[in-house]
Design brief:
heterodimer, A: 71 residues, globular, B: 377 residues, 7-stranded mixed beta sheet, 4-stranded antiparallel beta sheet, 15% strand
Chain lengths: 71, 377
């Protein structure tokens, strides 16, 4: 399953992308398409794989996840 | 031209820096961190790569590297963002005006107080001079890694340890040492590192950075658009967005990344060894000349950056620099924006002539410089 993971800033999105890639995931980042009220501008990472493992990797690099949407 | 003013900015820039700047102007002149189109994202990737390179070089997380327009703006952000009303700050007796004026402006508004710790050629004494100024309300020590006038290096690892033991934040001004001496923020207990991109890192002018350790909180002195959390009136609380309001200098930053590549490829130790050999050759030759006054002992590995200050007879430093300029030698005369350092070394009346070789200088140029000087005296 693929997920769109909101992380806020473009720098965080890139850090997440690098971390996921170094763990064998194919990941990319993009601008949030449908920001929720309060989101404002921001970026998200799109990745396919095991949700728990992906979130664990993101957590291990100290990036706060603002939202996860299954796509 | 024999360019020996690399303490002001390095020249020439490596070919790969020039090439990358031109390429960036053509290919990456899109607003990074704002757009969602592929060109904007590609520019953002380039910027992130430079954050990572700088983070790796100085031991910081990439997102904790915030780009600034120069070292002075980085120092202002770091110092003014760190202190609160009533705090006490310690700076060194060799600080550049980028630090001195900054703390003095805060002190003149009765916001902080500050003291000046004397530099000594003896590291133990320097450390003791910092230690004895610590007060219960001392919240910050700001110290340059190396003097921009006299090249002497501070024992920053030990000063950092002293700061850490006393719960004091430690800011290092690496204007002359970044890319010249090894810096490891974790090993050297540096909370915030400020550096220019255009000196020892061989990037373009108009670049610099402030790198902060994990969990370092700073107030902002500039607020504005960051491309993130845009609906909030509050400046983002995460780096680098918190400190990077407004459009970034993509061309400069991306080319700075090539400057870091250049250093990594050459090896920072090889660069330093080369520069130190040249500086010591010049030092030895100057010390043989009766009419020359030098202010420091011969340059010692890891105790000096390749910077020498001198004077000729009772001539003004400007007169010497003018003579050299007429002979196509570029040096810097005067006070080097560092009256504190000149006061410390007793050159407040005259200023000094400063020379600073880079990786691109060679012995032939240094000999030529000495010959030009000899011909005059």
């Amino acid at each position: 399953m693929a997920f769109d993971i909101k992380v806020g800033s473009i720098t965080k999105a890139q850090k997440v992308k690098k971390a996921l890639q170094s763990n064998g995931y194919k990941a990319n980042f993009h601008r949030i398409e449908n920001p929720q009220p309060g989101d404002g501008c921001g970026y998200a990472v799109i990745v396919r794989g095991d949700k728990e493992e992906i979130l664990e990797i993101i957590n291990s690099i100290g990036v706060k996840v603002l939202g996860v949407v299954a796509i | 031209m024999i360019y020996l003013d690399n303490g002001a900015t390095t020249y020439p820039k490596p070919k790969l820096v020039v090439d990358k700047a031109l390429l960036s102007l053509k290919k990456y002149s899109f607003n990074s961190g704002r757009g969602g189109y592929k060109e904007s994202l590609a520019a953002a990737e380039q910027i992130f790569n430079v954050r990572t390179k700088i983070g790796n070089m100085f031991s910081f997380e990439p997102e904790n590297v915030s780009f600034t327009s120069n070292c002075t703006s980085a120092l202002n952000m770091a110092i003014k963002g760190s202190v609160k009303q009533g705090d006490h700050v310690i700076i060194s007796s060799l600080e550049h005006n980028s630090v001195r004026r900054c703390v003095d402006a805060l002190a003149s508004e009765n916001y902080i107080t500050y003291d000046i710790a004397k530099y000594s050629f003896d590291d133990d004494e320097t450390l003791e001079n910092f230690r004895k100024l610590i007060k219960p309300n001392t919240s910050l020590i700001v110290c340059m890694h190396a003097s921009n006038v006299f090249g002497v290096v501070f024992p920053i690892e030990r000063i950092g340890k002293l700061a850490k033991e006393n719960g004091i934040r430690f800011i290092v001004d690496a204007a002359q040492s970044a890319g010249v001496l090894p810096i490891n923020s974790k090993k050297q207990n540096i909370d915030i590192l400020c550096a220019p991109g255009h000196k020892g890192l061989y990037g373009p002018m108009g670049t610099g950075f402030m790198a902060v350790g994990d969990n370092i909180k700073l107030k902002t002195i500039i607020e504005g658009g960051t491309g993130s959390s845009s609906l909030s009136l509050k400046q983002p609380d995460f780096t680098p967005d918190r400190f990077e309001s407004g459009t970034l200098n993509n061309v400069g930053i991306i080319a700075l990344g090539s400057g870091v590549d250049f250093i990594n490829k050459k090896g920072i130790e090889n660069i330093y060894n080369h520069e130190l050999k040249l500086a010591n050759y010049i030092y030895d030759e100057l010390s043989k000349m009766d009419d020359i006054t030098l202010y420091t002992p011969k340059l010692v590995r890891n105790k000096n950056c390749p910077i020498i200050s001198f004077n000729v007879k009772n001539y003004s430093s400007e007169k010497v620099a003018l003579y050299l300029a007429k002979n196509d030698v570029a040096v810097r005369a005067g006070y080097h924006c560092s009256p504190l350092a000149h006061k410390h070394f007793g050159t407040l009346e005259s200023g000094t002539v400063r020379i600073c070789p880079s990786v691109f200088n060679d012995f032939r140029e240094c000999k030529e410089f000495i010959n030009i000087l000899k011909k005059w005296l």
